[in-house]
Amino acid sequence: MDKTYRPYTLDQRLLLPPDMREWLPEGHLALFVSDVVDKLDLGPILKSYEQGDGRGNPPYHPEMMVKLLVYGYCTGKVSSRKIERATYEEVAYRLLSGDQHPDHDSIAEFRKRHLGELAGLFLQVLKLCEKAGMVKLGHVAVDGTKMKANASKHKAMSYGRMEETQKRLEEEVEKLLQAAKEADEAEDRQYGKGRQGDELPAELARRESRLKKIQEAKEALEREAKEHAQREAQEAEAKIRERRRQEEETGKKDKRMKPQVPDPQKARPKDKAQKNFTDPESRIMKDGASKSFEQAYNAQLAVDSQAQIILAAAITQEGNDKKQLVPMAQKVKENIGRLPSRISADTGYYSEPSVTDEKLKEVELYVPPDRIKHEPVPGRAQESTPADDTMIERMRQKLKTDQGRSIYKMRKAIVEPVIGQIKEIRGFRRFSFRGFKKVEAEWLLICLTHNLLKLFRSGRMQWAP
After folding, report:
1. Cβ burial 61-83 (10 Å sphere, 16+ → b, else e)
2. Pairing relation of β-strands 364-366 and 342-345?
3. What are the φ and ψ backbone dihedral angles of 19, each rounded to 5 degrees?
4. Residues 423, 429, 433, CA angle at the centre, nearest 5°?
5. Helix 436-458 / helix 62-74 crossing angle, nearest 10 deg
6. What is the pLDDT of residues 301-327, one digit of tens each?
C-alpha cells in the first residue's frame, strides 16, 4: 500500500503566473536543485514512511523536505526557523515548498530523523559530477580544517580538575547526607517513625547530578586512555616484529632504541586531558588560522584537481592529521573505484608509516616531512648519498625537483579554496548537531552541497540520465 502524503506538485496552475517555475529565471539554482533531487534515489527515506497505521495528518512529502534542506545548505541557511520563514518570504523557497509552509519543528525533526540518509546522497551527487566529466583522479589534494562543535569550550573540564572536583563534591554530598540523616532522626523522635519523607533537598540533588556527570566523563577519559594504550601497544609490537625480521635478514643487530610497549591496564589519562559535558565526543583543538583553541572536530576532505570536486569527506577527533592520509585515500577508492595517480598533502600528514603504506604503493605522493618556508632554489635535486637515503630524505629530494615543486605548489590551489568557500562564502563554521556520527553526517551533507554547486556552475547539464 502506497504511503499517503499531503498534496505536493510544482505543476500547480495559478492565475498569475501560470506556472510556479516562472517565478524564477531560467537556470536558477533552486530549479537546478529541484531537478537534481528528482533524479536522486530517495528510497531509504521514503521506505521509513511505509510503516505505521496511517492515523494522524499525512506528513510533508519527503521530496519537498529534501529540496528545502539541500537548497538551504547550498545557500548557507541551515536553521529550520529561517527555512520556515523563507517559505513565506523568499521566492526560491516558496517554489521548492510548492507554496506549503512546513513549520520549523517538522523541518528539524525531518533532518534529525533522516540525517544519515541525507549524508548518503553525497555518493549519488559525486557520481553525477563524475558522469559530467568533472572528476579525473590525476591529482588529489587532501587537507583538514577545524570546525567548531555545537558546544562551548567552557563546558569542558580536565581530568586533573575532575579528580579534585569529584573529591570535593563527594565530601559535600557526604556532609549533606549526614545532615539529612540527623534531620530525619530528629523528626522521627518528634513525630515518630513511618511518616512520609520530603523530596531530596535541591542542594543535594544538584551536587549529586554534577558528581554523576563528572564521574561519567572521568570514566570515559580513563576508557579512552586504555584504548589509546592498546593501539600504541599493537603498533609497538608490530615494530618489534619488523625489527626482528630485518635483523634475521641482514644478520645485523638494530642499534636503535627498542620500542616501548605500554601496559593498557596501567594507562591513566593525562591531567590536562579534557572532556566536554555538552558534546563529549568533541575535542579541544588548535585552529590553524586563528591559533586559538576551540571545542571542535577535525573535518577532512580529499579534492580532485579537475574541478575542485570533493571525492571523500570524513570527521576525526584527532587534533593533527598524521594518521589521516591513508584513510582518506581509501575513502576516495571506495567512492570512485580507484586511487588517484598522485596525492599531495601538507607536512601535517607526513609520517613514515603513512607514506610507506602498501595501500598507497601505486600512488605518487607529495607530502613534505618539513614545513616548506621558502621556495627552493630552481635546479636539479641534489644527489642523495647512501647515508641520507631514508624515506624522509627521498621525499625532500623529490620535492626539490622542478616537477615536485610544481605539483606540490598546486595543492593550495586545489583544496584550500574549497575550505574557504565552505567556511567564508557559505558561512559553515560550526556544526548544528552534537555527537560524532551526526557531525560526520552533517559534514557529508555540507560537502554534498559544495559538489552540487560546482556542478550547477559548470553549466554541464548532460549529467541527467
Report:
1. bbbbbbbbbbbbbbbebbebebb
2. parallel
3. -135, 130
4. 135
5. 80
6. 999 999 999 999 999 999 999 999 999
The answer, as to whether pTM is greater than 0.85, is no
Cα–Cα distance for residue pair 347/21, rounded to 1 Å: 49
Q: Which domain holds residue 258?
A: 156-190+200-276
Task: Judge whether 118 and 441 are in contact, CB under 8 Å.
Answer: yes
Asked if 276 contacts 270 with a C-beta cutoff of 8 angstroms, the reply is: no
pLDDT band at 384 (very low <50, low <70, confident <90, very high): very low
Q: Tell me, yes or no, whether 455 lies in a domain.
A: no
**Grid coordinates of 21:** 517555475
Task: Return the amino acid letter for 449.
Answer: T
pLDDT in tens, 200-220: 556 656 666 655 666 666 666
For residue 447, is it within any domain?
A: no
- Pair (102, 49) in one structural domain: yes
